Amino acid sequence: MAVLTYLPYNQVIASSHREAPLISNDPLADNTDVYAFKSPTDAEKIVLIANYIPFEDPSGGPNWYTFGQNIRYEIHVKNNAATAGDDITYRFTFTVVNEDPTTFFNIRLGKQNQKATYTCERSIDGGRTFTAIVTNGVVPPANIGPRSIEDKTVGLGAANYNALATKAITTATSGERIFCGPIDDPFFVDLGGAFDVGNFRPKGRDGLSRFNCHTIAIEVPVSTLQKSGKAVAQAATILDPDYVIGVWASSSRQMIKTLYAAGDVGYDGGWVQVSRLGMPLTNEAVIPVGMKDKWNSMTPYNGNDLQFAKYFTNPELALYMDDSQFGSAVPGLSALRIQSKSLGSFDFRNGKPGLFGLKGNAALNGTALSEAAFGSVLLPDAASPRAVDLLPIFYTGVPNLAPYQLATGKGGNPLAVGKPFIHNFLPTLGDMLRLNMAVPATPRNDAKFSSLGLVQAAVLGLTDPMYANTNLQFIPNMDGFPNGRRLEDDVTTIELQAVGGVVLAAVGLWYDDFTPGPGANPVTPSLVKVLSFNAGVTKNDTTLKGAFPFVQDPWRGFLGNPYIGPDADVTKPLAATVLSYNCNTGDITFGRIGGDPNRVVEYQAAGVVNGTWSTNVTRQIEAELRKDANSNRFLWIWARYVGDQSSLVNFMYDFRTPCGQARQGAAEFTEPMAVRIMGNPTIGDEVTVEVSGASGPVQLYLSNSRGQRIGQQTISIPGAVELRTVRLGEQPGAYFLQAVTPTERQTVKIIRN
C-alpha cells in the first residue's frame, strides 16, 4: 500500500479557483467563491453560498464531477467580535453510491451512478458540538444531456433539469432552506488577460464561461444569524451595528490517505483545513505564491491573519498603479493611479506615510483614526499607507465613523462628518466577507442597480441631488460588495479600483489633479478614469434565477442536434427538421419532430427569403446562395414554441448533397472571387480574412449561428488581394461571413472554439 500525506505543486487561477499550489491538485476540496447577500425576494432572509470544484467541463464524463467523500465542507459565520471562533458553523459531508455498477454510463434506465447525498450539521457553540439539521439531502446529477435527464425510458424521465434542481431544495429542521448541487459557475473574469502580467483589455474573454462548479447554498432567517436573535424589523437603522456578520468557507481533509492494492482507499488521522475563502481574490491576487498554502491552512481567528497584513498595507498590485515603480510596465492598469499628493500632501503609494503624519493630531479626535478608537491598527507606522483603507475592508470591516463617510457634506475636510453609506465593522482582524444584514436589498430591476456595488452607491451619494445631505438614507447598491457580495457584483473591477484609491477618493482624499478651493470640482479626469475602468468582463455569461438558490442550472454536456429515428412520437423533445426541398426552385418546407402537439411552433432561418420568425413552414432559399457553388452548403434552422425562447432548438441542413449535380445555375457563377479564413477554426475572437479576385466593391457581413448580423465592413476599391481583420462574437460557436459584390456572393463558415 502507499500512504499519501502531501500533494504535488501546480497552479492555475480565478476568483479562488486553483489559487494555491497544494489545492490546485485537490479540486473536489477547492473553495472557489463565497457570497453573502440580502435575499432580493425576502427582507428577512440572508443567502450564503460557497462554491467548490473549479472548471467543471459540462461534458466531462464518464465520471462527472460531484462533491467529495471524506471532505468536510463548512460555512462559518461570525456575529460577535467578543467571542472566540465561529458563532455558527454549517458542516456538510457527502456520501457517493453507485445504483447500477454493471454499466459504464452515469445514468441508465432510471438509475444513477456516483449519486451523492449529504448530511448538514450545525453548531452554535463554537464548534464544540454539532446537530444534524438535514440527513439524506438530495444532490441533483450532472446535466449530461437529454437522454440522461428527460428520457423516460433510458434516463431519469424528468420534465427538464430545472425540475430536478428545484426538487433538491430542502428545508432543514432548524428552518434554513438548502441546495447542494452542480451549477453554472457565476464568477466572471478575463483569466487570460489578468494573469498575463495584468494584460487587462476591453471586452475580455470570460475564462469561466460555460464552466460549471458545485454549490452549497443556504437561505437563512436574519434572526438565526443575528447575535441576539433579532429580525430585520427590529433594527434601529439600516446600518445597525448589531446586524453585522462575517462569513467565510473552508474544506478539510483527514491527514492520512492510504491507497491499497485492490483499489480501495482509506482515510485516517485528524482533520486539516486545506482551503478557505472569505473576501474574493485575497489568496488569488494579494497573498504571494510562497504563502498561499499557509493562508489556506489557517482560520481567520486568534490573530492568525496578522502575519499577512503587510500584503494589504503595501499590496503588490499597487506597484503596477504607480509610475515611480512599475506602472508603465502594465498598460492594462494605466487608468488606475494611486494618490501621491492628495489634497496637496498625502501620499498613498507603497512605502509612503499615507495619513500617518496626522497620528496623534487633535484633528483625529472623534474619528476612527484616533488612538482612543482604532488608530493603532489603521495608522500603524509611516510606511503602511493602505492600512487606512484596504486593510479594514478585508480585516475589520468599515465603521460608520469619520473619515469612512462619503465626502458629501464634509466641506472639503475628509475628517469631517459626511454621508453614511457603510457599516460592516466586525473587528476580528481576520479575512472575512462582512455583511450588515440591516441594509435593504436593491431590487434587481431597479434602474440604479449596478454590479459595481458600494462603488456605485458612493458615486450616487456624491453626485445625485437626491442624496446631497449627511442624513442616513438608503442608496441603491449599499447592499453590494464589499458589504457582502451579490452574485452580480463585479468584484475584480471593484477591488482593482479600490487598490487604485477609489475608496480614498470617495471619502474626500481626492486624486492628485484636484486643486482644493471654493467651488472646486473633485470629479477630475483622474477620478473619471478610475470610475470608467473595468477589468474587461463585467457580467456572467448567463442569467441568474429569480428565486432561491438564485444560481443558474449547470451547462449541459450534450450540445447539438440529437438523432431522432422514424419512430419518434410526441413524448420526444421538440426538434426541427426539413420535410422537403426542391433543388430547382429552392422551395423548402420546415417541420417538427416530437414536442407538445398542443403547442404551435414557429421557425427562423438564415439564408432564406423572409427568414424571420413565423409559423409559415414553406420558405425559399435565396437564389444567390443556391447558385453560388463556392458558398457554404449548410442552412441553419431554428424552431421554438411561439414566443417561448426557452424551448429554442436548431437544425443544420445540408441543402447541396440531396441535389447532387442538379446545382442548377452553378455554371453561371464562375467569377474568380475567393474568400479564405486564415486560422479556421480559431480560439481567439478575431480572424484574418483574405479576399482575392473581387470584381467590384465588397461588402463583408458577419452573422452568428442564429442568423443575426453582428458585423459589417466595406472594401471600396479592392486590390488583387485584400486582408481584413474580422472580430467575432463573444461566444464560441459557428459564425458565417458573407462577401458580396454587385455580381458575386460567397459565404464562409467560421468556427470559434
Roughly how many Å is the radius of gyration?
Answer: 29 Å
Count of discrete alpha- or pi-helical segments spanning 4 or more residues = 15
Strand content: 25-35%
Number of E-state strands = 28
Q: What ranges have pLDDT less than 50 throughout 5 or more consecutive residues?
A: 1-14, 564-571, 661-671
Calculate the mean pLDDT score and round it.
Answer: 90
Write a concise synopsis of the structure shown.
The protein is an alpha+beta fold and 753 residues long. The protein contains 15 helices and 28 strands. Helix content is 11%, strand content 27%.
Which keywords apply here?
28 strands; disordered N terminus; eight-stranded antiparallel beta sheet; alpha+beta; Secre_tail; 753 residues; DUF4331 family protein; Immunoglobulin-like
Write a structural description.
The protein has 753 residues and is α+β, with helices and mostly antiparallel strands. Among the domains are: 575-667, Immunoglobulin-like (Sandwich), CATH 2.60.40; 671-752, Sandwich (Immunoglobulin-like). The protein contains 15 helices and 28 strands. Strands 1, 4, 5, 8, 9, 13, 14 and 15 form an 8-stranded antiparallel beta sheet that branches.
Helix-strand layout with pairing:
Layout: E1 2-4, E2 31-38, E3 45-56, E4 71-78, E5 88-97, E6 107-108, E7 111-112, E8 115-123, E9 131-138, H1 146-149, H2 161-167, E10 170-171, E11 177-184, H3 191-194, E12 212-221, H4 222-225, E13 244-259, E14 265-277, H5 282-285, H6 292-297, H7 310-313, H8 316-319, H9 375-378, H10 390-395, E15 433-436, H11 453-463, H12 491-499, H13 502-506, H14 525-532, E16 575-581, E17 587-593, E18 601-605, E19 618-620, H15 623-627, E20 634-641, E21 649-654, E22 674-678, E23 686-692, E24 698-704, E25 709-715, E26 721-727, E27 733-740, E28 745-752
Antiparallel strand pairs: 1-13, 2-3, 3-12, 4-5, 4-13, 5-8, 6-7, 8-9, 10-11, 11-12, 13-14, 13-15, 16-17, 17-19, 18-20, 20-21, 22-23, 23-26, 24-25, 24-27, 27-28
